[in-house]
Specification:
The protein has one domain. The chain has about 100 residues and is an alpha+beta fold. The protein contains three helices and four strands, in the order ββαββαα. Strands 1, 2, 3 and 4 form a four-stranded antiparallel sheet that branches.
């Protein structure tokens, strides 16, 4: 889910001691890729999978968890300028992200 947060390659834990059932703290994930793409269809979005553990709260469209880690990067919707840079330098942004997070396709 989109937040103003940079996902680090290693496992992450919330700063608070526990999830608050009435607020939005924690790591959010949609149940399906289709639901995520429907909510966040914009260019420049990275779609992937995460492992969630610790306390996990299920919601109608997804989950909110105490701990998370990126496990897969599925696709990236690059801006047109990103596609042009890729043509010039021969490197795909998604390949760099997969390498950085130590995940496969």
């Amino acid at each position: 889910m989109y937040v103003d947060y940079i996902w680090r390659p290693e496992a992450q834990k919330i700063r608070e001691k526990t999830l608050n059932p009435h607020s939005g703290n924690g790591f959010h994930a949609f149940k399906t890729l289709e639901k995520c793409k429907y909510e966040y269809p914009n260019m420049g979005t990275v779609y992937g999978e995460v492992a969630l553990w610790g306390e996990v709260i299920e919601h109608e469209r997804g989950y909110r968890a105490e701990c998370a880690r990126v496990t897969r990067i599925i696709e990236i919707c690059e801006r047109p300028v990103g596609a042009r840079i890729r043509e010039l330098f021969g490197t795909r942004i998604i390949d760099k992200l997969r390498y950085r997070y130590g995940v496969k396709k």
